[in-house]
Structures are given as structure tokens and as C-alpha cells.
Amino acid sequence: MKARTRLGIPRQRRRIGVHYDPEAFGQFSESIARTLGTARFLVWQSFVIVAWIGYNLVVPNSWTFDPWGRGLVLLTLILSLQASYAAPLILLAQNRQESRDRAQSDYDRKVAERTQADTEFLAREIASVRLSLTDVATTQDVRNLVDIDELQKKVDHLTELVEKLSSRLDREH
């Protein structure tokens, strides 16, 4: 065993094999899954299989590359290979989509909580404004005040008249 001189630096794991960017590979798998999951792909694949079988049935045995007598081994191998790669790629794409959906769901939940808190705050503010407005004079109150002022003027005027009459009566007696 070899002594390590720098203990403050973590060891690098030994990697054997191919190094790849997980994000780029994930995007690649999603593009494959999007392609394999289309009707266009199924139509083209069906066309290729029918042409493959038709060619190997119609042409002379010397020209066949996947004879019917062997059970179309090459076609079976190709389709098995395609399925063995397509299934994990599709699962990887689904896992990535599930992660994105989970992140979006968390974000939506946080936005909903924030919106609810804001709505409750605004409801409290509106209630406090309503309570504050109960002490504010309305236009009807102001009109009534105007009427009171007019009545006060009339009362003052009548009081003056009564005083004048009273003073005249006092002079006459």
C-alpha cells in the first residue's frame, strides 16, 4: 500500500471505461425515445420489415441474405438489438421527464403557497380598509352638514328677527 502525502485532497475514483456527459446522453436518449414513439417510425419500421421478408422470399436463394429457411435470424437479431437498446433509452427518458415533472410540481406548489399567502394578506388589508372607511364621512353626511349649516343660518336669522321684534316691543312699552 502506498502512503498518501496529501491527505486533504480526496482520492479520485478509478474509472474504467467510457466517460460521457450524463446531460448530453440524457438529451440523446430523449430524442431517441421521441423518434421511437411516433407513428411515422412504426410505419417505416413495418415497411422495412415487410420489404426485408418480401425480398428474402421472392429472390432466388443465392441472392438472399437472411433466408426464410433459417427463420430470418438476421431480422430477429436486428429487432432484438433494437428492442434491447430502445427499452433502456425510453426508461431513461421517462426518468428524466419524471424528474422534470417533480421539479415543476414543487415549483407549482411553492407558487400556489405564495399566491395563497398573498391572497390572505390582501384580504386582511381590504378588511382593514373597510373598517377604516366606517369612520369616514360619506357624501350623505356632508349633505346633512350642509343642511345643518343652512338651518343654523335660518335659526340665527329668526333669532335676529325675534330680537328686533322684542326690542321694538320694549321701546313701545
- N-to-C SSE string, H for helix and E for strand: HHHH
What would you call the structural class?
mainly alpha
| Uncertain stretches | none
Q: What is the rounded distance between the termini? A: 140 Å
Radius of gyration: 46 Å
What is the number of independent domains?
2
Q: How would you characterize the largest beta sheet?
A: none
**What would you call the shape?**
elongated
- How many DSSP helices? 4
Strand content: under 5%
Q: How many strand elements?
A: 0
What does this structure look like?
- By secondary structure, this protein is mostly helical.
- It has 2 domains: 112 residues; 30 residues.
- Helices cover 75% and strands 0% of the residues.
- It contains 4 helices and no strands.
- Helix 1 crosses helix 3.
- The radius of gyration is 46 Å and the shape is elongated.
- The N and C termini lie far apart (140 Å).
Write the layout of secondary structure elements.
Blueprint: H1 22-36, H2 39-58, H3 73-133, H4 139-172
